[in-house]
Amino acid sequence: MAVDRRKVAVFGAAFVLRLLLVCLFPSLPDLLTGRVEVSTPVNSFKRLQEGLFLYIRNVSPYDGGVFHQAPLLLPLFALLPDVKSSPFPTAIFYFFVDLVNAHALISISESGQSVQTRLHSAMRKHIRWDGVSIAAWFLFNPFTIATCLARSTSVFTTTGVLYAVSNAVDGNSINAVLALGFASYLSLYPALLFIPLVLLCYDQQAQSSKAPNTVRFFVQHGAILLASVAGLLGLSYLVTGNFWEFMSATYGFHLLVPDLTPNVGLWWYFFIEMFDSFREFFLGVFWLHLASYVGGFTARLRRQPLFIITSLLGVFAIFKPYPSISDASLYFALLPLYRHLFPLMRYTFFAVSALLYSSLLGPAFYHLWIYAGSGNANFFYAITLVWSLGLSILLADSIFAALRDEWEQANPESQGQEVKQI
Amino acid sequence: MTVPSLLSLLLALAVTLWSSPVSASSDYHEQLFLQPLPQSSLLASFNFRGNSSQQSFDNQHFRYVPRALGQILQHAHTKELHLRFTTGRWDADSWGSRPWNGSKEGGTGVELWAWIDAADDEEAFAKWITLTQSLSGLFCASLNFVDSTRTTRPVVSFEPTGHHPDANSLHLLHGTLPGEVVCTENLTPFLKLLPCKGKTGISTLFDGHKLFDAAWQSMSVDVQPICSSDGDCLVQIEQTVDMVLDIERSKRPRDNPIPRPVSNDQLVCDTSKHYNADDTCYPLEKVTDKAWSLNEIFGKTLNGICPLADSSEQSVCLRVPHEKGVFATPGASELKKDDGFTRCFSLPASGPFDLSIPEQQLQTEVPLQEPVLHAERTIVGHGQERGGMRIIFGNPSETNAVDFIYFESLPWFLRPYIHTLQATITGHDGIRREIPASDLVTETFYRPAIDRERGTQLELALSVPAASTVTLTYDFEKAVLRYTEYPPDANRGFNVAPAVIRVLDGANSRPLYIRTTSLLLPLPTPDFSMPYNVIILTSTVIALAFGTVFNILVRRVVSVEEAAALNAQTLKSRLLGKLVALRDRFGKKEMKVE
């Protein structure tokens, strides 16, 4: 009961904080919607409004260069009242999506999957935050709040991913894959989480009952994923009426990266400055690079599937074509599940400093480039490099800590010793 | 305005000359119309019109329709063509409504629209590209840069002016080059299209130095089929040049064009000023109109008449009050029209012709017609990330609402958000009120841009109530381009084509057009010196992340002692192995020597 009260308090406080911010600063949501760090071409609320405007007037929103989000968002937002005249219903809808995400996070935390899996048991189980603390960490993270107030549509992808994971740790493998299908339908990249997610489901099933046939298990769940995505695409076809048009405007847009609006990632400036003849080559290299982590993580961290998912979300936050701080906030939401690894990390101070440094200087340098005219594009570009560097140090460090934890499990006698990698 | 205006006169002239195209003794007409405008400006409006029967056009017998142009049109299956080269700005506040009701002018730069006969859109576009490429060569203009991103297909803004029996298969395509600098190299091919090629007739007055020094000038070429009721068709080519010259500026001698201060004895001082003294003067504006003559203004002599034109035609008309003294070269006959303002001259059959107007003071002034609509378009906001477009329409009429079509084509890198379209209206009382845009906009034709494929096309049917000002605003976002897509002068900004406004006037079947000025759009720019640096730096960060992560993944975790032991072992064995290998080699060599 006491825990429940804490949960209610955290959720209520998060809700009230958001409401206060919206009421006290009515222009804040629109300001955040316009920030390149929060809104990218694939999750911007303003672009969604434009798409919705065209959709309501029976003009295909995909026959244009502005709207690149999933078609099913259109009828969903058409149900909400007009944002310009009454902004509160939409804002409150987004608040609830955040709370729903936090709820999923609590159930992931409470399953204990982060410290105790079928094949691995962490050495420092006692160093742990409980579910409500992790939810509070997520809900009061300024990145999450900014994403929520900016009404970025990537929160729905976050919901999909978190529900996929929370269903997987609870053993509802079909629901998990369906949720992943939803997330993949919205923004394509979560499809890469399929293998670790099915591994997680497999482990859960093997733990609770007899281990199923591996190949059959994978094929079955792959089929479910494909079916769910196909079903959503079929519904989208009913909504838009032109299959290839929306496919190329949404997934083609993700894959080919034609819009080079600045964001916190590494792709935009690279492809602005890329020589035309090498554009396709580097596009392929970047995507291959992004996908290559799936194999590496899965092979080495097989014993901790949830950690694979967490680390992959970190990789996506750095190397996605259109990353925003909402991707980072999703990574930061899952990272505290591994609180027991924090003592094993070596460069925490450096990583956190780099992240703080870039999140404070990023907006300033962007202002210098775009508004003041006293800096050029390199200013903001340099900050995105630092941001990516900070995130990748954090990522590498957490993987190192996880491997060391595995090593300590294998050699309990040498716990706390200095280690080296050879 | 009870007094007939310049426009209605031009209209009347055009209609009388048009009404009997087949029976006219000559199929070629040329006309020069001059009108002094306020602020010591002079509007000179040249018009050249030639006809050819459809049959001879189809059989490639070219007489007045130039072969170079005619063959391009035939090759590109173009039935009707309108080409405009414009520079400068028509100052509607001082000069009143536009010559030819704006139907012979284009937006700043080059504007081209044509009706092309084709089976479908793709074929029409292919022919359009053929047309623009060929015209580009013919007129020495960058028309070949009219690609799919600069081509639009307006729905309601333009209507064919010619008569087309099979209008269903015609496709209207419209392209603009707002950044094109119109200059002498466009005038020379323009003159070559004329039957007399600038050698005789009124076209001898053209001089690139004067024409492109004008405050506003517009050259147009129109080709259209004209059919009479009994089915005889003509192909008509009409070329016009309109320019507003500053009289003072044009009179400066070419070899000494620097303006000099007025000498002391010619200064007219305001003696009522208290500081007026021998050495202090507040100069007064001259109340008299400036003296000018054709030779002075154009720097050339009008040399004879074009022998192909009707010799009895009065080809030079001047619109000044009848009481004004005008001296023409002897041999030219003068005819004063009944309206009290227009007089026309028929040129002497040979020899030069000149008109000169001495400095004089008159009470009567030629009335100017007020424009039916004022339009103004500006970019608002600051920063290189986003901005807003603001369009202001003012209806000066106290009684009538004005209906019009507002057409704009935007480049793809300007991304408008149409859902932010807002309207405010200021009525008689001068109070600004926000109203829903749908109250004013009766129809919208909108085709959003696709990156690197096509531009935005927006047509709004609007109505502005009497004596009110309507302001439309919408937000837009500026795209960031690839660095190769920026022009060499990237920080100058990008030109946005002027908006075209077609005023719908039920009573007047002739179209009335207004164009706004073109806009300059600054875009965010990357650092152009950085491609290698960016590739290297980004790749370094990626390599660092990839390297670190996979380094951690592929290596084995061991304790420090174990690592030291392993390292030492490997080092020792490696050294030993090397030593053994060396010894063996030396041993073998020694064996061989022995």
TrEMBL record, chain A:
InterPro entries, A to Z: PIG-U
Record bears the keyword Cytoplasm: no
Topology relative to the membrane: Multi-pass membrane protein
Pathway entry: Glycolipid biosynthesis; glycosylphosphatidylinositol-anchor biosynthesis
GO cellular component: GPI-anchor transamidase complex
One Pfam assignment: PIG-U
Protein name: Phosphatidylinositol glycan anchor biosynthesis class U protein
Subcellular location: Endoplasmic reticulum membrane
One GO term of the biological process aspect: attachment of GPI anchor to protein
Transmembrane segments: 7-28, 91-108, 129-153, 173-202, 214-239, 281-299, 305-323, 344-366, 378-403
Protein family: Belongs to the PIGU family.
Keywords: Endoplasmic reticulum, GPI-anchor biosynthesis, Membrane, Transmembrane, Transmembrane helix
Record's keyword annotation contains Endoplasmic reticulum: yes
Automatic annotation (TrEMBL), chain B:
GO cellular component: GPI-anchor transamidase complex
Highest taxon listed in the record's lineage: Eukaryota
Transmembrane segments: 532-554
InterPro entries in UniProt: PIG-T
Pfam families: Gpi16 (PF04113)
Record carries keyword Transmembrane: yes
UniProt keywords, alphabetically: Membrane, Signal, Transmembrane, Transmembrane helix
GO BP terms in the entry: attachment of GPI anchor to protein
Signal peptide (residue range): 1-24
PANTHER family the UniProt entry points to: GPI TRANSAMIDASE COMPONENT PIG-T, GPI TRANSAMIDASE COMPONENT PIG-T-RELATED
The protein's name: GPI transamidase component GPI16
Native organism taxonomy: Eukaryota, Fungi, Dikarya, Ascomycota, Pezizomycotina
